[in-house]
Amino acid sequence: MDFGLDAGDNGGASYPASDGPYIPEAQDCMRCGMCVSGCPTYRLFQTDAETPRQRIRSIEKVLRDEAISDDERGHLDNCLQCRACETVCPSRMKYGELFDLARHKLMQLQPPSWLTGLALRLIEHKNWRRSLLPLVSLYLRSGLQKPLRASGLLQKLNLAAAERLVCEPALGGLAGVFPVGKRARQRGRVALFTGCLAEHFDRATMKAAIKLLNAIGYEVVVPEGQGCCGAIHQHNGRSVAALLENNIAAFYALEVEAVVYLASGCGAMLSEAEGADSETSGWFRRSLCDINEFLLEHWPEQLQPAASNLNIAVQEPCSQRNVLKNAKAVYALLAKIPGVNIEALPDNQTCCGAGGSYMLSHPENAGRLKAAKRQAIVGCGADIAVSANFGCAFFLNAERGETDRKLMHPIRLLADRI
Does pTM surpass 0.70? Predict the structure, then answer.
């Protein structure tokens, strides 16, 4: 079986050959079917066209500058990029990298809609986003939601899916420095990566992280110059080089021991992003650390959380299971709380449907996956469900029933008991 192409045998196509991810020949896929059952879109449609082994054939065509049909493009676009297929593939096919290369080429041929472009710009530019958020808050308080939804205008503008996700944002920014309090001895200094949307819509998790880091003796710095990690841009075929370099510059200027991220989706993106091979980019990747892993590694023995008689279900995001592969840290960290019972959420290997911007671009598919995940949360009998990814929790918490459990970041649960 040939796992690559010779550098001179690429037919003039502009994709990596011997020094990059291999470009699969059709026969490279063993058609073993191991990727099929774990693919969320196969679960939805029960058709071979909605499997990684079929999509890889379309990806091969795109990377060889061959035309693909509208149906093939549709099946490619249906992919959630959860990368569950990578974890089971016996050929070790780098599906994620290949998919990103293909998506980038396709977007150059057919740019995204004006609405998608505007959304990406708002995510990219912090000042624009901050200027818009007071209007979002005003809208939520105005009572206009019901009449606007009923008018059908949101559907016509393709804003219905986005509007259903809107919740009250935090309008102010975080302070630049959070010093260790008098009760703890300062052991070091770390920087907090806040991301873009999470900075405003997941402020409670930010505060919990700062509280815990201070409690174990670490001063926390929140650089104003940081921005989006680029995950949503990459999912939409955009270059993330400028976003990555901006974040590297913002954090490299600080004297910190680690750059701590809270959302597994951001961590996965930042840890894999291709940037300039330099001293600064190398330092940045070495400094990246998941909040759960950092707390677990540096937790002082004398710090004892309050006991709680709780059953906790852990939802493992795709970015954590399939890319970072560090889900065990969540279980170990929560075990610091005396009296808790911690279990994995049933069917954790299946994507929740959020998929970066997938919840907006494919609301029907995402909604069906969300319904299944919500059913698992309700049916597991846990008192509390946790997720280490902002995107998953944001999506799964939207439009839930009044009695349905709300997902929270595991560190919020821990911070409440310190």
Answer: yes
Does the pLDDT value for residue 17 go beyond 70?
Answer: no
122 inside domain: yes
Packing angle of the helix pair 52-63, 70-77 (nearest 10 deg): 120
- Neighbouring residues of 118: CB distance < 8 A, sequence distance ≥ 6: none
Same domain, 32 and 118: no
Residues 189 and 260 in one domain: yes
**Element containing residue 263 per DSSP (H, E):** none
For the chain, how many residues are written? 418
Residue pLDDT, tens place only, 229-268: 999 999 898 989 999 999 999 999 999 999 999 999 999 9
Q: What is the pLDDT of residue 276?
A: 53
327 and 379 belong to one structural domain: yes
Question: CA–CA separation, 228 vs 126, rounded Å?
Answer: 9
Q: How far is CA 383 from CA 2, 6, 228, 309, 405, in A?
A: 51, 56, 33, 9, 8
Q: What is the pLDDT averaged over residues 97-120?
A: 88
Q: How far apart are CA 409 and CA 222, in angstroms?
A: 19
What integer is the mean pLDDT of 204-215? 97
Angstrom distance (rounded) from CA 310 to CA 290 = 24
Comparing C-alpha atoms, which of 229, 196, 234 is closest to residue 81?
234
> HEC string of 367-402?
HHHHHHHHHHHHHCCCCEEEECCHHHHHHHHCCCCC
Note whether 333 and 352 are same-domain residues. yes
What proportion of the chain, given as a percentage, has pLDDT over 70? 92
185 shares a domain with 289: yes
Considering its fold, how many domains does the chain have in total? Answer: 4
Q: Are 377 and 391 in contact (CB under 8 A)?
A: no
- Indicate if the pLDDT at residue 86 is higher than 60: yes
- Identify the CA nearest to 64 among candidates 99, 26, 27, 14: 14
What whole-number distance in Å separates Cα of residue 377 and Cα of residue 135?
Answer: 33
For the stretch 378-395, pLDDT in tens is 999 999 999 999 999 999
Domain span holding position 186: 177-297
Per-residue confidence (pLDDT) for residue 170, from 0 to 100: 94
The verdict on 151 and 122 lying in the same domain is yes
- Among 142, 165, 188, the domain-final residue is 165
